[in-house]
Design brief:
Blueprint lengths: L9 H24 L5 H22 L7 H28 L2 H7 L3 H12 L6 H18 L9 H27 L4 H10 L2 H15 L6 H28 L2 H4 L5 H14 L5 H18 L4
Helix pairs in contact: 1-4, 1-10, 1-12, 2-3, 2-8, 2-9, 2-10, 3-7, 3-8, 3-9, 4-12, 5-7, 6-13, 7-10, 8-10
Length: about 300
Protein backbone atom coordinates (compact mmCIF):
# COMPACT_ATOMS: atom_id res chain seq x y z
CA UNK A 1 0.00 0.00 0.00
CA UNK A 2 1.72 3.15 -1.23
CA UNK A 3 0.80 6.73 -1.91
CA UNK A 4 1.62 8.63 -5.08
CA UNK A 5 5.07 9.50 -3.88
CA UNK A 6 5.86 5.83 -3.35
CA UNK A 7 6.05 5.94 0.44
CA UNK A 8 4.08 3.36 2.43
CA UNK A 9 0.67 4.39 3.75
CA UNK A 10 0.29 1.23 5.85
CA UNK A 11 1.26 2.95 9.16
CA UNK A 12 -1.41 5.61 8.58
CA UNK A 13 -4.05 3.00 7.74
CA UNK A 14 -3.15 0.94 10.83
CA UNK A 15 -3.30 4.13 12.92
CA UNK A 16 -6.84 4.78 11.73
CA UNK A 17 -7.90 1.20 12.48
CA UNK A 18 -6.38 1.40 15.97
CA UNK A 19 -8.18 4.69 16.72
CA UNK A 20 -11.52 3.31 15.51
CA UNK A 21 -11.09 0.14 17.57
CA UNK A 22 -10.35 2.18 20.69
CA UNK A 23 -13.48 4.26 20.10
CA UNK A 24 -15.54 1.09 19.77
CA UNK A 25 -14.67 0.35 23.38
CA UNK A 26 -15.22 3.98 24.30
CA UNK A 27 -19.00 3.69 23.84
CA UNK A 28 -19.22 0.93 26.43
CA UNK A 29 -17.10 2.81 28.97
CA UNK A 30 -18.97 6.07 28.29
CA UNK A 31 -22.32 4.37 28.88
CA UNK A 32 -21.20 3.29 32.37
CA UNK A 33 -19.45 6.53 33.37
CA UNK A 34 -22.31 8.73 32.10
CA UNK A 35 -24.60 7.16 34.68
CA UNK A 36 -22.47 8.94 37.29
CA UNK A 37 -20.95 12.01 35.60
CA UNK A 38 -23.01 14.41 33.39
CA UNK A 39 -22.12 14.43 29.65
CA UNK A 40 -20.34 17.77 29.29
CA UNK A 41 -18.61 17.49 32.65
CA UNK A 42 -17.19 14.19 31.42
CA UNK A 43 -16.27 15.73 28.08
CA UNK A 44 -14.40 18.55 29.83
CA UNK A 45 -12.50 16.02 31.94
CA UNK A 46 -11.67 14.03 28.85
CA UNK A 47 -10.33 17.04 26.94
CA UNK A 48 -8.23 18.27 29.87
CA UNK A 49 -6.66 14.84 30.39
CA UNK A 50 -6.09 14.43 26.66
CA UNK A 51 -4.45 17.82 26.27
CA UNK A 52 -2.19 17.34 29.31
CA UNK A 53 -1.10 13.93 28.03
CA UNK A 54 -0.18 15.26 24.58
CA UNK A 55 1.36 18.41 26.05
CA UNK A 56 3.79 16.31 28.09
CA UNK A 57 4.92 14.50 24.93
CA UNK A 58 5.23 17.76 22.98
CA UNK A 59 7.20 19.35 25.84
CA UNK A 60 9.54 16.35 25.92
CA UNK A 61 10.13 16.80 22.18
CA UNK A 62 11.07 20.46 22.56
CA UNK A 63 7.77 22.34 22.90
CA UNK A 64 5.23 23.88 20.53
CA UNK A 65 6.44 25.38 17.27
CA UNK A 66 3.08 26.15 15.61
CA UNK A 67 2.68 29.64 14.17
CA UNK A 68 -0.13 31.87 15.43
CA UNK A 69 -2.28 31.27 12.36
CA UNK A 70 -1.80 27.51 12.56
CA UNK A 71 -2.65 27.55 16.26
CA UNK A 72 -6.00 29.27 15.78
CA UNK A 73 -6.93 27.12 12.79
CA UNK A 74 -6.36 24.05 14.98
CA UNK A 75 -8.50 25.56 17.74
CA UNK A 76 -11.30 26.24 15.23
CA UNK A 77 -11.23 22.71 13.83
CA UNK A 78 -11.13 21.32 17.35
CA UNK A 79 -14.29 23.22 18.27
CA UNK A 80 -16.15 21.32 15.52
CA UNK A 81 -14.85 17.93 16.62
CA UNK A 82 -14.74 18.31 20.38
CA UNK A 83 -17.26 20.99 21.31
CA UNK A 84 -19.98 19.94 18.87
CA UNK A 85 -19.46 16.35 17.75
CA UNK A 86 -18.25 14.82 21.02
CA UNK A 87 -20.86 16.78 22.98
CA UNK A 88 -23.69 15.35 20.90
CA UNK A 89 -22.01 11.94 21.02
CA UNK A 90 -21.92 11.80 24.82
CA UNK A 91 -25.51 13.04 25.19
CA UNK A 92 -26.71 10.62 22.51
CA UNK A 93 -24.90 7.65 24.05
CA UNK A 94 -26.40 8.43 27.47
CA UNK A 95 -29.94 8.48 26.02
CA UNK A 96 -29.48 5.55 23.64
CA UNK A 97 -27.32 2.40 23.86
CA UNK A 98 -23.60 1.79 23.43
CA UNK A 99 -24.14 -0.50 20.44
CA UNK A 100 -26.45 1.98 18.69
CA UNK A 101 -24.00 4.79 19.35
CA UNK A 102 -21.20 2.81 17.76
CA UNK A 103 -23.34 1.80 14.79
CA UNK A 104 -25.02 5.11 13.91
CA UNK A 105 -21.77 7.03 13.95
CA UNK A 106 -20.21 4.33 11.76
CA UNK A 107 -21.88 6.11 8.83
CA UNK A 108 -18.98 8.57 9.08
CA UNK A 109 -17.00 6.97 6.19
CA UNK A 110 -19.83 7.69 3.77
CA UNK A 111 -20.52 11.12 5.26
CA UNK A 112 -16.88 12.11 4.75
CA UNK A 113 -17.28 11.89 0.97
CA UNK A 114 -19.37 15.03 0.31
CA UNK A 115 -17.21 17.08 2.67
CA UNK A 116 -14.05 15.78 0.98
CA UNK A 117 -15.42 16.72 -2.43
CA UNK A 118 -16.48 20.19 -1.28
CA UNK A 119 -13.50 21.17 0.88
CA UNK A 120 -10.63 19.09 -0.54
CA UNK A 121 -11.79 18.81 -4.17
CA UNK A 122 -11.49 15.03 -3.98
CA UNK A 123 -13.49 13.36 -6.77
CA UNK A 124 -16.63 11.50 -5.67
CA UNK A 125 -17.51 8.58 -7.94
CA UNK A 126 -20.90 7.06 -8.70
CA UNK A 127 -19.92 4.07 -6.54
CA UNK A 128 -19.31 6.36 -3.60
CA UNK A 129 -22.67 8.08 -4.07
CA UNK A 130 -24.36 4.66 -3.99
CA UNK A 131 -22.47 3.90 -0.78
CA UNK A 132 -23.75 7.12 0.80
CA UNK A 133 -27.33 6.17 -0.08
CA UNK A 134 -26.99 2.63 1.30
CA UNK A 135 -25.39 3.79 4.54
CA UNK A 136 -28.02 6.52 4.97
CA UNK A 137 -30.82 3.97 4.71
CA UNK A 138 -28.98 1.87 7.27
CA UNK A 139 -28.76 4.78 9.69
CA UNK A 140 -32.48 5.52 9.27
CA UNK A 141 -33.25 1.86 10.02
CA UNK A 142 -31.15 1.92 13.18
CA UNK A 143 -32.52 5.26 14.37
CA UNK A 144 -36.07 4.12 13.77
CA UNK A 145 -37.53 7.27 12.18
CA UNK A 146 -41.08 6.55 10.99
CA UNK A 147 -41.71 3.63 13.34
CA UNK A 148 -40.46 4.81 16.71
CA UNK A 149 -42.19 6.93 19.33
CA UNK A 150 -41.05 10.46 18.52
CA UNK A 151 -41.25 11.36 22.19
CA UNK A 152 -39.05 8.51 23.31
CA UNK A 153 -35.72 9.13 24.96
CA UNK A 154 -34.10 6.47 22.77
CA UNK A 155 -35.07 8.23 19.54
CA UNK A 156 -33.78 11.56 20.85
CA UNK A 157 -30.47 9.91 21.69
CA UNK A 158 -30.27 8.39 18.21
CA UNK A 159 -30.86 11.78 16.58
CA UNK A 160 -28.10 13.33 18.71
CA UNK A 161 -25.82 10.54 17.50
CA UNK A 162 -26.67 11.36 13.87
CA UNK A 163 -25.56 14.96 14.43
CA UNK A 164 -22.38 13.62 16.02
CA UNK A 165 -21.70 11.47 12.94
CA UNK A 166 -22.15 14.36 10.48
CA UNK A 167 -20.01 16.80 12.45
CA UNK A 168 -17.29 14.21 13.03
CA UNK A 169 -17.10 13.65 9.27
CA UNK A 170 -16.70 17.42 8.81
CA UNK A 171 -14.03 17.54 11.52
CA UNK A 172 -12.08 14.69 9.92
CA UNK A 173 -11.97 16.41 6.53
CA UNK A 174 -10.95 19.71 8.14
CA UNK A 175 -8.07 17.87 9.86
CA UNK A 176 -6.71 16.80 6.50
CA UNK A 177 -7.16 20.31 5.13
CA UNK A 178 -5.03 22.00 7.83
CA UNK A 179 -2.69 19.20 8.99
CA UNK A 180 -0.58 18.99 5.86
CA UNK A 181 2.79 20.59 6.53
CA UNK A 182 2.47 20.91 10.32
CA UNK A 183 3.33 18.61 13.20
CA UNK A 184 0.33 16.31 13.74
CA UNK A 185 1.08 15.74 17.43
CA UNK A 186 1.15 19.47 18.19
CA UNK A 187 -1.95 20.06 16.07
CA UNK A 188 -3.80 17.25 17.88
CA UNK A 189 -3.02 18.78 21.28
CA UNK A 190 -4.14 22.27 20.26
CA UNK A 191 -7.35 20.95 18.64
CA UNK A 192 -8.41 19.61 22.03
CA UNK A 193 -8.39 23.18 23.34
CA UNK A 194 -11.15 24.04 20.87
CA UNK A 195 -13.67 22.02 22.84
CA UNK A 196 -12.75 23.29 26.30
CA UNK A 197 -14.66 26.63 26.53
CA UNK A 198 -18.04 25.08 25.73
CA UNK A 199 -17.54 21.86 27.66
CA UNK A 200 -16.20 23.62 30.78
CA UNK A 201 -19.07 26.13 30.84
CA UNK A 202 -21.84 23.59 30.29
CA UNK A 203 -20.12 21.00 32.47
CA UNK A 204 -19.91 23.44 35.39
CA UNK A 205 -23.63 24.12 35.02
CA UNK A 206 -24.38 20.40 35.01
CA UNK A 207 -22.41 19.85 38.21
CA UNK A 208 -24.09 22.81 39.91
CA UNK A 209 -27.64 21.73 39.02
CA UNK A 210 -27.44 17.94 38.85
CA UNK A 211 -24.30 17.01 40.72
CA UNK A 212 -22.52 13.68 40.27
CA UNK A 213 -23.19 10.16 41.42
CA UNK A 214 -20.90 8.08 43.58
CA UNK A 215 -17.33 8.24 42.29
CA UNK A 216 -15.82 4.77 42.59
CA UNK A 217 -12.44 3.41 41.54
CA UNK A 218 -14.09 2.00 38.43
CA UNK A 219 -15.48 5.41 37.47
CA UNK A 220 -12.06 7.03 37.96
CA UNK A 221 -10.48 4.33 35.81
CA UNK A 222 -13.14 4.94 33.16
CA UNK A 223 -12.47 8.68 33.10
CA UNK A 224 -8.73 8.07 32.78
CA UNK A 225 -9.34 5.61 29.93
CA UNK A 226 -11.57 8.11 28.11
CA UNK A 227 -9.17 11.00 28.63
CA UNK A 228 -5.82 9.38 27.98
CA UNK A 229 -6.48 6.43 25.68
CA UNK A 230 -9.62 7.52 23.81
CA UNK A 231 -8.59 11.17 23.54
CA UNK A 232 -4.82 11.65 23.66
CA UNK A 233 -3.86 8.38 21.95
CA UNK A 234 -6.79 7.73 19.64
CA UNK A 235 -7.23 11.34 18.50
CA UNK A 236 -3.59 11.57 17.53
CA UNK A 237 -3.80 8.26 15.62
CA UNK A 238 -6.96 9.43 13.80
CA UNK A 239 -5.48 12.81 12.91
CA UNK A 240 -2.28 11.10 11.72
CA UNK A 241 -4.30 8.85 9.41
CA UNK A 242 -6.18 11.79 7.87
CA UNK A 243 -2.99 13.83 7.51
CA UNK A 244 -1.31 11.02 5.55
CA UNK A 245 -4.17 9.49 3.53
CA UNK A 246 -6.91 10.82 1.25
CA UNK A 247 -10.02 11.52 3.31
CA UNK A 248 -12.07 8.86 1.51
CA UNK A 249 -9.43 6.20 2.23
CA UNK A 250 -8.74 7.22 5.83
CA UNK A 251 -12.45 7.25 6.68
CA UNK A 252 -12.73 3.53 5.85
CA UNK A 253 -10.75 2.65 8.97
CA UNK A 254 -13.77 3.81 11.01
CA UNK A 255 -15.36 0.50 9.99
CA UNK A 256 -13.60 -1.20 12.93
CA UNK A 257 -15.50 0.97 15.40
CA UNK A 258 -19.05 -0.47 15.14
CA UNK A 259 -17.72 -4.02 15.21
CA UNK A 260 -15.82 -3.47 18.45
CA UNK A 261 -18.54 -1.28 19.99
CA UNK A 262 -21.41 -3.64 19.23
CA UNK A 263 -19.44 -6.70 20.36
CA UNK A 264 -18.46 -5.11 23.68
CA UNK A 265 -21.98 -3.74 24.22
CA UNK A 266 -23.34 -7.27 23.88
CA UNK A 267 -20.55 -8.89 25.90
CA UNK A 268 -20.24 -6.44 28.80
CA UNK A 269 -23.59 -4.61 28.98
CA UNK A 270 -25.96 -7.35 27.86
CA UNK A 271 -27.43 -5.21 25.06
CA UNK A 272 -29.57 -7.10 22.57
CA UNK A 273 -29.89 -6.52 18.85
CA UNK A 274 -33.33 -6.08 17.24
CA UNK A 275 -33.95 -7.20 13.63
CA UNK A 276 -34.07 -3.52 12.57
CA UNK A 277 -30.71 -2.94 14.24
CA UNK A 278 -29.14 -5.90 12.44
CA UNK A 279 -30.59 -4.89 9.07
CA UNK A 280 -29.47 -1.29 9.50
CA UNK A 281 -26.03 -2.43 10.60
CA UNK A 282 -25.71 -4.68 7.56
CA UNK A 283 -26.62 -1.78 5.25
CA UNK A 284 -24.07 0.53 6.87
CA UNK A 285 -21.38 -2.14 6.54
CA UNK A 286 -22.40 -2.72 2.90
CA UNK A 287 -22.15 1.00 2.20
CA UNK A 288 -18.65 1.15 3.65
CA UNK A 289 -17.57 -1.93 1.70
CA UNK A 290 -18.85 -0.37 -1.54
CA UNK A 291 -16.67 2.67 -0.87
CA UNK A 292 -13.69 0.48 0.02
CA UNK A 293 -13.46 -1.03 -3.46
CA UNK A 294 -10.46 0.73 -4.98
CA UNK A 295 -10.86 2.74 -8.15
CA UNK A 296 -9.29 0.98 -11.11
Amino acid sequence: MENRSGSSTLPAFVSGLAAASIWGGMYVVSKVVLDVIPPFALLASRLVLGFLSLWLVVAFRGGFTLKTGQFWKCVGVGSVGYAVSLGFQFVGTRLSTAATGALVTSATPALVLPFAALLLKERVTGRELVAIAIASVGVIAVVGIGSADLSSTRLAGNLYLCVAAVTWALYSVLVRRIARGIDVLQASAVMLLGGLPTSLAIGAGEIATRGCGTITFGIVAGVLFLGIVCTAVAMFLWNYAFARLEASSASLTFFAQPLVGAALGWLLLGERFSPRFLIGGALIILGVLVVSVKRR
